[in-house]
Each structure stands twice: as structure tokens, then as C-alpha cells.
Amino acid sequence: MNRVPTGIPGLDEILQGGFLEGSSILVAGGAGSGKTILSTQYVYKGAEQYSDPGIYITLEEGTTNIWWNMKSFHWNIAKMQQENLIKIYRVGMFNPKDFAQQFDTEIGKIKDMVNEMGARRLVIDSTTAFGMFMSNDADIRYNLFKLINEMKKLNCTTLLLSETFGKRDQFSRFGVEEFVVDGVVALYFFPPVRSVLVKKMRGTDHDKRVHPFEIGPNGVEVNASEQVLWESLNK
Ligand SMILES: Nc1ncnc2c1ncn2[C@@H]1O[C@H](COP(=O)(O)OP(=O)(O)OP(=O)(O)O)[C@@H](O)[C@H]1O
Ligand SMILES: [Mg+2]
Q1: For residue 95, what is the DSSP state?
Q2: How far apart are CA 34 and CA 4, in angstroms?
Q3: Average pLDDT over residues 137-162
Q4: Which ligand is closest to the CA of 58, given by its number?
Q5: Cβ-based burial of 124 (10 A; exposed 0-12, middle 13-18, buried ≥19)
Q6: Can you give the residue ranges of every domain in the chain?
Q7: Who lines ligand 1 at CB under 6 A?
Q8: Which of 34, 124, 188, 205 is the most exposed, having the fewest neighbouring CB atoms within 10 Å of its CB?
Q9: What is the pLDDT of residue 97?
């Protein structure tokens, strides 16, 4: 099976080379745990190192925030946008009364963008934001499944961000997202230590330990040779 390298130092090592092509991965973590930076890096490095076109879809953070991150790490986003390798797409607010139809329209727009660019990597920041428009867990599960399926048909490898309360044992906000996706990567920040755990990865083995990571001048760097004890993470 083909792997999609994340381009994030250390992370590919604990993933045995990257994500399985076409898989859907939940990136879960509390506020400020590094979800947006890690995912921006996945799209940026994908374009820079592997010439993979990618789309960063945001419901949560303004496109300026994504720009700040790219600039802060000296990633040349403008060049990538000019070369049609990266697109940042901001989804408008949904009207809860008419969610189903607007959701289908947005999926349609994303599909058109993917086809037009030949996108291979997608980020959806975040599933928590779109779950807020749904009234129950069954709806969240159904819509998430629908979204993931569409992205799979396009053969995109998709990161879906999930905002948790940052606890050790919480892997999604609504408690259902982690079951719909193929993989879960949990990010923790218990100051001053940042750490990452691959909680699940359907169809492949992976490292089961918690590893420290840093956000440095080049973005996220995972230390694959060191570990953080599970017991040391706050419950
Ligand atoms: N240039 C930088 N160098 C080092 N650390 C940084 C840099 N920029 C941001 N950070 C750290 O990364 C954190 C933000 O990471 P990020 O935006 O990826 O979090 P997030 O998980 O998406 O949070 P939220 O749920 O609030 O959107 C900041 O709070 C800061 O601690
Ligand atoms: Mg974020």
C-alpha cells in the first residue's frame, strides 16, 4: 500500500513512513496543542517536498492565521499558491436550518477544487466546528462518514482536526469522530512538554509510545527516539 509521508521530522518514523494513501486521520488535541501548525506543515511540506497539491479547508481559523503560521516558519506559501500547489479555502458559516443542503454544496465545491488542482492532501480544520451545527451524535457520525467517503473516492489523504479538552483519554470532542476515521493522532500539551501519540491506524502497525515534540523555528519536530510516560500525562 502506498504511504503519504507527512514531511514532519520524526512523525513519519513513528508512522512507518507516513499515512496510508486515501486514509482519513483525526488530529485531536486541546487548545494550543499544535493541530493547526502540524496540519499546515503537512500540506506545505507535501507541496514543497513531494509536489503533492493540497487544500487547507478552514471553518475555524481565518485564512490570516494560516498565513501567520506559514510566515512564522518561513514557508513560502505565496509561491505554492502561484504554482497552484496549495489552496486555503474558508468555508462560510452554515445556517443550522438548512444544514444538509449547504453541506452538500460545500462538499461539491471541495470536490471541484480537488479535481481542478489534482489535490492529494486535505485538511479540515475543524470537525468540531462543523459538529456544532448538528443536534446529535448520530448526525455527526453520519455527516462525517459522508464527508470522509467523498474524500476517499477522490483518493485524498485527509486530516480532520478535533478540538478536545486536552485530557489524556479524550480523542475527539463528541466521542464519535474517533470511530469513523481510519487513524487518530493525539497531541498533548502539559506545559512545558508537548507530546504526540498515534492512538489508532487501521491497516498498519505503528509506534505505540507517546513521543515528545517541539514547535521550533521549522515547525513541528517529533523526537522519535524519546518517550513520555503515559502515566505522566494528566487525566
Ligand atoms: N513560531 C512559533 N514557534 C514556536 N511555537 C509556536 C510558534 N507559533 C505558535 N507556536 C505555539 O503553538 C501554539 C499554537 O499551535 P496551533 O495553532 O497549531 O494550536 P491548535 O491546536 O490549532 O489550537 P486551537 O485549538 O486553539 O486552534 C501556540 O499557542 C504557541 O504555543
Ligand atoms: Mg487551530
Answers
A1: P
A2: 20
A3: 95
A4: 2
A5: buried
A6: 3-232
A7: 29, 31-37, 72, 163, 215
A8: 205
A9: 81
Atom of ligand 1 nearest to the CA of 68: 8
Question: For the segment 91-143, what is each residue's pLDDT rounded down to a tens digit?
Answer: 987 787 888 899 999 999 999 999 999 999 999 999 998 888 888 999 999 99
Q: What distance in angstroms lies between residue 61's CA and the mean position of ligand 2's atoms?
A: 6
Cα-to-centroid distance, 1 and ligand 2 (Å): 30
Q: Does 3.30.1330.120 match the CATH number of domain 3-232? A: no
**Residue reference for cell 493522532:** 185
Ligand found nearest the CA of 213: 1
Listed residues: CB within 5 A of ion ligand 2 = 36
Residue 139, burial from CB neighbour count under 10 angstroms (0-12, 13-18, 19+): middle
- What pLDDT is attached to residue 2? 95
Average pLDDT of the residues in 207-229: 97
Q: For residue 64, what pLDDT band results from cuts at 50, 70 and 90?
A: confident
